[in-house]
């Protein structure tokens, strides 16, 4: 009888220690995320959701569970991993803490079923809410990075594709689109994977032209669609709410339709005739000025823009430009990128 009672007490104590540790882990992770939502994103809704989740966890963190804590006797306090010693970016901090919270909530859900029947259901619902929080946070992060981007590199097939893109990234570029209309799918997939990894290394957004399937396959930040590509609604259904969708537009009707359908950003052009869009007449500055007056999402002037005509483009109240040949064919793509970024400055167009 004594052994049975002793075993029951041991199990109960172990359960309390598991629950206490994972409640601490979840609350700490949520507080780390909350601080960025509050001070980094200035997002009241996300901050409030983190706070409410923490308060609900605190409700379950009873004195009985805290009393079971034995930090000096915890074998796990001496365990560590090299990845925990440093974080490459704020994004890495957020991802690590989202994973920590989700893992802790799964532990709380499973062991909570033994400790208190109500715990399992409560933590299950909380875990789903954190999944939603993660999607919203990812989408918000991408939107903010898009808003800050003034220069958008659209690639063209070259023998120096990766070296050119990396040089531009070293020059400060934060937004890249992989575009290749002629390569077979195996090559496109390989190139997209490598470019996506490059962009991650330099904390830049990576977009795939046309191909929603490739964007999903390489975990890109989004897709850019032409007028003849998939409808935005279908692309959104496939990509989810957290990824970006851009749309090329060539006239006011295109602009309003793209925004109404939910595009996160639009391309406006071509400003000048360009071999990238062979056979398409230039939309010209009338449409550029229309976009400046009516666009309610970030927009990028595109088409034949280079270092020689950028001043003229900026004079038409253009804050953001998308560049192809002027960087992809540049002798010094890093220097050229730095020039464009310096001219675009804080985004305020010239009067």
- The CA-CA distance between the termini, in Å, is 88 Å
What is the third-level CATH name, the topology of the largest domain? Answer: TIM Barrel
Placed side by side, the strands forming the largest sheet appear as 1-2-3-4-5-6-7-8
Low-confidence stretches: none
Number of domains: 2
The top-level CATH class of the largest domain is Alpha Beta
Architecture blueprint of SSEs:
Layout: H1 2-40, H2 44-60, H3 63-67, H4 90-115, H5 117-148, E1 151-154, H6 161-170, E2 175-178, H7 185-201, E3 205-209, H8 212-217, E4 222-225, H9 232-239, E5 244-249, H10 252-261, E6 265-268, H11 284-294, E7 299-302, H12 310-314, E8 321-323, H13 325-328, H14 333-344
Parallel strand pairs: 1-2, 1-8, 2-3, 3-4, 4-5, 5-6, 6-7, 7-8
Helix pairs in contact: 1-2, 1-4, 2-5, 4-5, 6-7, 6-14
Pathway: Cofactor biosynthesis; thiamine diphosphate biosynthesis; thiamine phosphate from 4-amino-2-methyl-5-diphosphomethylpyrimidine and 4-methyl-5-(2-phosphoethyl)-thiazole: step 1/1
Pfam family, one: ThiD2
Domain Thiamine phosphate synthase/TenI: 151-327
Keywords:
TIM Barrel, about 10% strand, 2 domains, alpha/beta, 8-stranded parallel beta barrel, about 350 residues
Question: Outline of this structure?
Answer:
Pathway: Cofactor biosynthesis; thiamine diphosphate biosynthesis; thiamine phosphate from 4-amino-2-methyl-5-diphosphomethylpyrimidine and 4-methyl-5-(2-phosphoethyl)-thiazole: step 1/1. This protein has helices at residues 2-40, 44-60, 63-67, 90-115, 117-148, 161-170, 185-201, 212-217, 232-239, 252-261, 284-294, 310-314, 325-328, 333-344; strands spanning 151-154, 175-178, 205-209, 222-225, 244-249, 265-268, 299-302, 321-323. By secondary structure, the protein is α/β, with parallel strands linked by helices.
């Amino acid at each position: 009888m004594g052994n049975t009672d002793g075993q029951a007490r041991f199990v109960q104590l172990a359960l309390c220690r598991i629950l206490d540790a994972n409640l601490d882990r979840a609350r700490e992770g949520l507080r780390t995320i909350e601080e960025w939502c509050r001070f980094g994103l200035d997002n009241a809704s996300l901050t409030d959701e983190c706070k409410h989740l923490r308060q609900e966890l605190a409700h379950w963190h009873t004195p009985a569970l805290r009393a079971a804590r034995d930090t000096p006797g915890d074998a796990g306090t001496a365990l560590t991993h090299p990845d925990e010693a440093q974080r490459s970016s704020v994004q890495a901090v957020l991802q690590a803490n989202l994973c920590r919270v989700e893992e802790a909530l799964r532990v709380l859900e499973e062991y909570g079923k033994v400790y208190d029947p109500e715990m399992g259901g409560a933590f299950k619902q909380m875990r789903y809410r954190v999944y939603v929080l993660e999607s919203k946070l990812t989408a918000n992060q991408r939107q903010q990075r898009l808003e800050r981007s003034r220069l958008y590199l659209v690639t063209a097939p070259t023998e120096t594709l990766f070296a050119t893109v990396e040089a531009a990234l070293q020059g400060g570029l934060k937004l890249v689109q992989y575009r290749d209309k002629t390569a077979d799918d195996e090559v496109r997939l390989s190139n997209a994977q490598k470019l996506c990894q490059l962009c991650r290394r330099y904390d830049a957004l990576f977009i795939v032209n046309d191909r929603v399937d490739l964007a999903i396959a390489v975990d890109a930040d989004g897709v850019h669609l032409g007028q003849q590509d998939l409808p935005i609604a279908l692309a959104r259904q496939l990509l989810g709410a957290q990824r970006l969708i851009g749309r090329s537009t060539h006239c006011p009707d295109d602009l309003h339709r793209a925004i109404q359908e939910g595009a996160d950003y639009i391309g406006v052009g071509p400003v000048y005739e360009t071999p990238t869009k062979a056979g398409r007449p230039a939309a010209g500055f009338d449409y550029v000025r229309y976009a400046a007056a009516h666009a309610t999402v970030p927009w990028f002037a595109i088409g034949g823009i280079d270092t020689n005509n950028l001043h003229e483009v900026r004079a038409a109240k253009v804050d953001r430009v998308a560049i192809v040949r002027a960087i992809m064919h540049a002798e010094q793509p890093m220097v050229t990128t730095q020039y464009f970024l310096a001219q675009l400055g804080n985004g305020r167009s010239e009067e």
